[in-house]
Amino acid sequence: MPDYKIGTDDPPHPHDAGAGAWGSKPAELTKRAEKLEVQMHMGEFVILVGPDAARHMSHYLDNTGTDLTIRLRNMVNEVPSAKKLYAKELDRAKAFVQTLPDGTYNITSGSIDHGYDMESESRNWFFATGGYTVWGKGSARVATVGTMRTFTLTFEYKFYDRYNWDGGKKVVLFGFTITDDFMGEFHRQGLAKEYDCFGSISDTYSWSVAVPVAPPAPSPPGPPAPGPTPKGKTYTVVGGDSLSKIAQRFYGNPSQWNKIYLANKGVIGANPNLILPGQKLVIP
């Protein structure tokens, strides 16, 4: 799967060997006649196969070998698998952009992806292109506004294919079986020339996502609840105290007040209900 990165360089996009060296064999009269026969059927080729297939074939037979710019947007719109591959490449670019901090960037795919226009999807593009390579690149702007992150991506979808004949393949046209070797022989005899096909689509996309909100920090723990005061110590009476309250504090049982009273009768006096702030009591 292509990985996006910061940069502008296109990833390497090699092609297969094709029919071999152009003009490596002398042109034969029979091959010249066969080329003429193919050219005479180009009008039928447009009708029965499609305009792009005919355009690409004509460019091959023109024998210039110059690059050809394909109608890439048409291919993407007309071939379901090509449309799906475009959407997948765009999603990859968007996902990468969303990992970037605020700023402006040039991005590019680190590797190519491969597609194939099947005859069952489009006869026109099957004969025009067949297998091909694609990748993405573009410029992106990232900004945070309030609680939203906004992204703008000018996405360029790029296409490359070598119009050539590899051998070992064949198709049936006009009731005739035509092999890659038959078509490639025109190239080897210098009567036609293989060439590079390029294409590009550029569109701008804008979208926003909410900034993740961090959960509130937990409140610091409060002071521990007071527990029973350890036994065998003294206690200084405060306002509002009673022996039953002090017994609850030290023993967890208010009915133990009498134990405290008996240990401190000399301090408290004859009335256990009368204890005064500042009195120091022994807790037995």
Topology overview:
Layout: E1 4-6, H1 29-40, H2 42-48, H3 51-61, E2 68-69, H4 72-78, H5 80-97, E3 103-109, E4 113-116, H6 123-128, E5 131-145, E6 148-163, E7 170-173, E8 176-179, H7 180-188, E9 195-210, E10 234-236, H8 243-251, H9 257-263, H10 265-268, E11 280-282
Parallel strand pairs: 2-9
Antiparallel strand pairs: 1-3, 3-5, 4-5, 5-6, 6-9, 7-8, 10-11
Helix pairs in contact: 2-3, 4-5, 8-9
Write up this protein.
The protein has 284 residues and is of the alpha+beta class. The chain has two domains: 4-210, no CATH class; 234-282, LysM domain (Membrane-bound Lytic Murein Transglycosylase D, Chain A, Roll), CATH 3.10.350.10. Helix content is 32%, strand content 27%. The chain has helices spanning 29-40, 42-48, 51-61, 72-78, 80-97, 123-128, 180-188, 243-251, 257-263, 265-268, and strands at residues 4-6, 68-69, 103-109, 113-116, 131-145, 148-163, 170-173, 176-179, 195-210, 234-236, 280-282. The strands form three sheets. Strands 1, 2, 3, 4, 5, 6 and 9 form a seven-stranded mixed sheet that branches. The longest helix is centred in the first third of the chain and has 18 residues, at 80-97.
